[in-house]
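Ticket #224: bound-state structure for zinc ion.
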Amino acid sequence: MSVFDTTSMACPSCESSVDVELVHSVNAVRRPDLRDAILDRSFQSVACPSCGTTFRVEPEFTYLDVRRKQFVAALPARELADWKAAEGRARSAYDRAFGKGSDGEALGAGMQARCTFGWLGLNEKLIAHEHGIDDVVLELAKMATMRSLGDVKVGADREFRLVGATDDELIVGWLRTSTEEIDDEYAVPRQLLAEIDAEPATWAALRAEVSGGMFVDYRRALFG
Ligand SMILES: [Zn+2]
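RESOLUTION: The complex was predicted; output attached.
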């Protein structure tokens, strides 16, 4: 089941009260339209009836797709600074619902459980899965790409994300968390993923830095 409730929020532009259908959980199998809306970046976007300003509510919901075996605790970008605590809470909630001895244990078998901060991180998990890309190897490929570009932006408003893929290329770019605008986009040979996979010893230390919990992300290594 997908769960929403109506909440009043202040318009960020004119501060008048706006009724928002706030999401608490998304069931992507029953509501594929919600998955589509996440991917096209329209989900939880609201137009203020007073001034017409469109704004997007920060994610704070659980995303479940039992067909693709994806679970994501989609958390607000502002919680990134305290990701260890947020990841711990996400893990507890996941274990209660799908862990050993829970009612959802069978459903949880083989599930990829993740947590993300902000819309861009959630989108990336869905895009990677859509293109059959392992998200841990993807983070390593992104680290390698940032290094070869000589460009690692560590600001909280800048994220290096997969935005698409073809048969031969990964399309990655620098995006702004606040506006979701892309500044620079790069095409990276998809072969890089296979090269990383072929050299497990070389990548072991970095692999441990970007994974090791539900927050699988290069920023795990940057925001200690
Ligand atoms: Zn307004």
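RESOLUTION NOTES: The CA atoms of residues 48 and 54 lie 6 Å apart.
TICKET STATUS: resolved
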